[in-house]
């Protein structure tokens, strides 16, 4: 391999996580030659340090909690979790941080993998520096797609590097259960990792700068999750910021703005994300290194007709499933433009427009209880200028909830647009609600009228009967 070697493709994708893989899959399916560049593991953050390992840690936690609510079963699951077995299962789920299977998949669909750091070095050009320092130039006839994702953003605290704090990566890949764990943050990662490690045996202290957990969801979602975490033994302190962190003789010492001194074995900062765009050559095409990339609904970067930014890097929705959705849109748009298809922008709900990113983004938080939502919260809908009404239902009133387990606690909120009589959003909190959110996603994305939903009959006795209760409450009040 020499410095002057050049490889020509129709499409070059930077980043081989789920988003990059899906862009490559769609362009290959359209008959376009495609290369993908990856500096770490094929499969990306989701496969090895985020979605998959975190859910592998959380599944036994949630299954045990649900089993303990079932008469005749709870007596069999009263002991502690087998933490080594849970961690071993997590390791299996991440393929022990080896990407052989993902590489075979790329080979199977005909995508060329180039290992190394890819940097844009001009229009439609990516230079790859390989593991041994070798360099090759990849040229793209039609498009370059940036799918490099995001990384944990750490606060600017003096000496933080010396403390060796956990980020989401360490929290999902740790080899042992810390006796004491401080979690800084109140979002999804903080809530899920506090749930997992508390159940696995850590004494968790949650330090939340805001008023409560899950601030981007309806307020009751964070309240119910915080209530359950507190009952499980976690110490949650809201309105609290960390002013300093040190590690003394192996012990982490965090000092808060309230003057509290908290000691732990590890500290996890779950305080936001930053784009992985600082070292991909954006400056060579007049863009700011380290910036989020603004795109249109076909995921094309403004001002660059050959450059696409898909997934976390465009900051539209930092969720794997939404990134994969964008990847399908981008792949279709790239293929259509490559073939000279006209009228790409004329169909807002067509194959080439990521319309759902604006209206119907679903999310599940895998805590106990689960929290799930799609579309807008009541506050977001009102802020957007919609004339809406919120309808709330106690999930324990649904027959299926009682069968699910004793003492079922949960809540649902439907946000109805009073002008168009369609759903703008729905939020559910309670055991098992993650499996209900797709029906809500269909209702929101499909703009299904409320009077039509009335005829979508939920099966009895399931928790999905909450739909009937919500619609009854809307019609009767």
TrEMBL record:
Binding site for NAD(+): 185-192, 272
Origin: domain of life: Bacteria
UniProt-listed GO biological process terms: 2-oxoglutarate metabolic process
Record: residues binding FAD: 55, 118, 148-150, 312
Database matches in InterPro entries: Class-I_Pyr_Nuc-Dis_Oxidored, FAD/NAD-bd_sf, FAD/NAD-binding_dom, FAD/NAD-linked_Rdtase_dimer_sf, Pyr_nuc-diS_OxRdtase, Pyr_nucl-diS_OxRdtase_dimer
Residue ranges of domain Pyridine nucleotide-disulphide oxidoreductase dimerisation in the record: 361-467
Disulphide bond pairs: 46-51
Family: Belongs to the class-I pyridine nucleotide-disulfide oxidoreductase family.
FAD/NAD(P)-binding domain span: 9-322
Keyword hit for NAD: yes
Gene Ontology MF, one: dihydrolipoyl dehydrogenase (NADH) activity
Protein name: Pyridine nucleotide-disulfide oxidoreductase
Cofactors required: FAD
Keyword Cytoplasm: no
Keywords per UniProt: FAD, Flavoprotein, NAD, Nucleotide-binding
Record text on cofactor binding: Binds 1 FAD per subunit.
């Amino acid at each position: 391999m020499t410095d002057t070697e050049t490889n020509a493709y129709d499409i070059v994708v930077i980043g081989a996580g789920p988003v990059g893989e899906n862009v490559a899959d769609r362009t290959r399916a359209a008959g376009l030659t495609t290369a993908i560049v990856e500096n770490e593991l094929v499969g990306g953050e989701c496969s090895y340090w985020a979605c998959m390992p975190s859910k592998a840690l959380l599944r036994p936690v949630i299954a045990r909690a649900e089993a303990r609510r079932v008469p005749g079963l709870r007596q069999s699951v009263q002991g502690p979790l087998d933490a080594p077995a849970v961690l071993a299962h997590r390791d299996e789920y991440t393929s022990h941080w080896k990407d052989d299977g993902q590489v075979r998949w790329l080979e199977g669909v005909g995508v060329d993998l180039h290992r190394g750091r890819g940097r844009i070095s001009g229009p439609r050009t990516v230079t790859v520096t390989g593991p041994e320092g070798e360099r090759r130039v990849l040229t793209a006839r039609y498009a370059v797609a940036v799918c490099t994702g995001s990384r944990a953003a750490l606060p600017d605290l003096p000496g933080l590097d010396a403390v060796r704090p956990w980020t989401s990566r360490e929290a999902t890949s740790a080899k042992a259960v810390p006796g004491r764990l401080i979690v800084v943050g109140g979002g999804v990662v903080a809530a899920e990792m506090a749930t997992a490690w508390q159940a696995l045996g850590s004494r968790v202290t949650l330090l939340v700068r805001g008023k409560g957990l899950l601030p981007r969801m309806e307020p009751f979602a964070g309240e119910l999750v915080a209530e359950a975490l507190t009952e499980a033994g976690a110490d949650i302190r809201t309105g609290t910021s960390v002013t300093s962190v040190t590690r003394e003789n192996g012990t982490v010492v965090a000092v808060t703005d309230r003057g509290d001194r908290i000691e732990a074995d590890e500290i996890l900062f779950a305080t936001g994300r930053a784009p992985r765009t600082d070292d991909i050559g954006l400056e060579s095409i007049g863009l700011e290194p380290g910036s989020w990339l603004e795109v249109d609904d076909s995921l094309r970067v403004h001002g660059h007709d050959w450059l696409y930014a898909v997934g976390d890097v465009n900051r539209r929705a930092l969720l794997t499933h939404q990134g994969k959705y964008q990847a399908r849109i981008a792949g279709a748009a790239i293929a259509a433009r490559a073939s000279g298809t006209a009228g790409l922008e004329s169909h807002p709900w067509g194959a080439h427009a990521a319309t759902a990113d604006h209206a119907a983004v679903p999310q599940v938080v895998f805590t106990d209880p689960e929290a799930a939502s799609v579309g807008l919260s009541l506050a977001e809908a009102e802020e957007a200028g919609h004339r809406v009404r919120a309808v709330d239902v106690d999930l324990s009133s649904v027959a299926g909830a009682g069968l699910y387990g004793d003492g079922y606690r949960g809540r649902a909120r439907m946000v109805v647009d009073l002008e168009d009589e369609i759903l703008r959003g729905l939020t559910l909190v309670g055991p098992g609600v993650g499996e209900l959110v797709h029906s809500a996603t269909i209702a929101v994305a499909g703009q299904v009228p409320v009077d039509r939903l009335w005829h979508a009959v939920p099966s009895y006795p399931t928790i999905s009967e909450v739909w009937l209760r919500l619609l009854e409450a809307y019609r009767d009040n």
